[in-house]
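Task 17 of the worksheet. Students: predict the tertiary structure of the chain below and write it out as structure tokens. Keep your answer in the requested format; marks are given for formatting as well as content.
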Amino acid sequence: NDLDSSIVAIRKTKEDEIFDAYDSSDDEFSGVVIAETYNETMILTLSDAVFGDEELEIMWVNGNSQPGYLKHTDDISGLAIISAKKSEMTDTVKALVKPIGLGNSYAITRGDLLIAMGSPRGRIHSTDYTWASYIDKNAYTIDGPSRIIYISDYLDNNKGTWLLNVKGELIGWNDKSHDGNVVVGISDYKSLIERMSNSSDYAYI
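Model answer:
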């Protein structure tokens, strides 16, 4: 429950030409707060959440909302980084939201308990538990092998499902390029996430 305050709903918004107002679309994706600076809070989400030129709205767990700003997106990994400006954030949200640390997915072994957050049941702020049932250390990915984790339960991967270890650290996500019982380990992607957070491209061969 403490960690759930660092899970957000991301909505695409676009201007309503008739009523001259901003109307939330039906598409919502979950994101997870992973870092903060003096000026902004960084949110990791799926690239589908920012597809197109729609403006973004971040909805915090207490119901407050604010604009979201795209830092960078990477279509190969299917990830994106969104920024929330602290100048547009209420004091309540500042006190409530804390970054979730990035764990070591290489340390996950068969049988480890994992916590699924985000949207494992197709609803944002749903939660589930699963465990690692098989570790593939040489799964094929762009530019070389990567480590993926097969889990015991099928989880919804359409809106963003994030897997944490029992220490409360983010160790991966449910990837849409696989079915719902496969988790991509985060350790292979930390350098990508760092570059995206700095609005920099990541080089692929």
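Marker's comment: Confidence is low (pLDDT under 50) at residues 17-25. The longest strand covers residues 21-36.
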